[in-house]
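Possible regression after last week's pipeline update?

I re-ran a chain I had predicted before the update to compare outputs. Posting the input and the new output here so someone can diff against the archived version. Not blocking, just want to make sure nothing changed silently.
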Amino acid sequence: MATHTATLITGDGTGPELAAAAQRCIDAALEKTPGAGSIEWTECVAGVDIMDSHGTPMPEETIESVRNTDATLKAPITTPIGSGFRSVNVLLRQTLDMYCCLRPCKSYEGVRSKYENIDLVLIRENCEDLYAGVEFAKGTPEVAELIETVNRLSTDKKVMTPPESTGISIKTISEQNSERILRFAFEYARKHGRKKVTYIEKANIMKHTDGLFKEVAERVAKDYPDIESEERLIDNMCMQLVQKPELYDVLVTENLYGDILSDLCAGLVGGLGVAPGANIGDSGAVFEATHGSAPKYKGQNKVNPTAVILSGKLMLEYLKEDAAAKTLEDAVSKVIADGENTTYDMKPSRDDPTAIGTQEMADAIIAAM
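New output (post-update):
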């Protein structure tokens, strides 16, 4: 039986509560699965709650632990909107070159949704595109220089707004990063018995960036004749998923589109509360829920732990503990389908007095194993 090492990043807001619930469920799944290994955890901190004490939302010792352990489970971390520090998630992905964001979206009996039997996997490129954060503020010399350069080089696509009122963000798409995320998608489909990969871009408008992604996708698809492949434009893909999600299987796309589509897909299965995620590279992986830290509920033992626990299921699969992963998912499915031992957001009414807390739902999941 293997002994794995894992980093547990406790996050901020409701993160520590969710981390504790998920860790207990993961350990219980390993303990209750014959032949499964175990995990030696290293607990680390990150987020807004440690800014005063550490001077950074992501201490170097936390990054080193992620780098040096077999896998990482990360609880939610707050990212300020419009100001403050840059996203810790983006920092981790780029620092450790975790180029793939994996987000399965699956229907579970008992979760309220307008759709049934959804089973999609979204695979998102993680390291470039507009999310690389190459931006220049309005009124700066850099913006003035960029506008001048663009206008000089382009005969028909001139920037007409003045630099003092224009911000600029750079979109980069490379052959190398496009190919590795596309190959990841096709390999994932082949390994998991999936039948189709849909690659998504906006190549009809952004011909030299999204057009390059499309070109690489067509080339990579030829190496996987056993997997059906097709193209969709991002706007059409959104409509298709709302109208007929049953036609789709594995979706692969660029960074920004992937972030938007992952929330859309989560909406199909009942929301972010049941949407797990993973960031995977060649030398490491971080597993986390798709949702945020919900700081207004901090310390109330109230929020739904399902997405973080299911992220733990993905972590167990990554560690090749497939049987324990199934033990964990089956227990989560049973508790949700039963409907008795769930948090307030999974009840027919959010004021339902039978709703239980975060830790109590984890207890129920462990009891169901």
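Follow-up from reviewer: compared with the archived run. The chain is about 40% helix and 15% strand. Marking as no regression found.
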